[in-house]
Amino acid sequence: MTTLSEPPAGIGLTPITHFAAASAEAQPGAQLAAIREAAAGFRSWFAATGRPEWVGTFDLQTLPYPTRFGLFRAALSPTPFVTLTHRMQVIRWREPDGRVRTLVFEPTDTELARRTPYFARLQESTPDVFERLFARPLGDVLSHLRSIGIAPEEVDWITFDHLHTQDVRRWIGTGEPAPDISPRAPVPPLLPNAKLLVQRAELESLRALHPLQLPWYQPHAYTDLRRDAIVALDGDVLLGPGVALLATPGHTIGNHTLVLSTDTGIWASSENVIAAECLNPEASRIPGVQRWSRNWGQEVVLNANTIEDTARQYNSCVLEKSIVDRSRVDARFAQFMPSSELTRSPLAPGTSPTFVHRGIFHGALTPRR
Ligand SMILES: [Zn+2]
How many Å lie between the centroid of ligand 1 and the Cα of residue 105? Predict the structure, then answer.
């Protein structure tokens, strides 16, 4: 396993302490109350840190996903799969010394992600038609960056809400040859200055995967990564003005959420739920969802493929819901952007989303000095 480097000093990874007491609470009910109590204080503090200069969202691919995982116990539809659209966000901000920083959230290497055991099995067991309709490429990371004039060398940080399906070897490079993609020499980094920001708990999960976790990870991709290109985090950090990562365990133990302060207020993005209405099921028109939420007294519908820590995931969803603003487009829904968002599909009747965000867009892109 790759040895981790510590966060370099003085590069703007400021620890955030608002949710420290909540995180330390072992009892889920007490933790939920502590999260609700801390949310308002975080919101006003975070908004006062400023805003990034620009945020853009780019489609990467659609993918099939089991309905029973994505909508947990709530949806009535007998359709086995829903369609999700997976997207990446690019965030630019200026440091106090004037230096521009670039973060890419969810830069999925879609080609290598297909080797994840879950997708590999699905491709083997499903005919081509299914694959073409459900798993559609919509763009790739480097082309998207090129389209907005950001050179690969300009990317300072990459991060993912968690490492399900991810293989980052081509982005940050390896220290040793990789038999499957570069047998003779180490994999050269396509994003040569980028560092991977990842919770230490997520990396540690990869050392000894549990059967619940195995279908979703590619552990072989993390054994020889360039060690100076990984920054292990222990909890919540402010990266720049109005740009933060908050630890939100549950979906995975080392899950974290991107939080942004923008012209339309505060946004959060992760895969803890797959649709805005899963944080606001009272406004859902997906058959079954609203009634299920009411009957069981549960205010969120989890993305439940691994259920590594279900009550903690519920609490993380409430955290996300409590710190963001309401949508300016439809105030019934929170400004929570699912990193893989439920998408209407003729193949998945009874699961059409009531409302979709399609992305986070903010500010203007100015040339780097
Ligand atoms: Zn996941």
Answer: 14
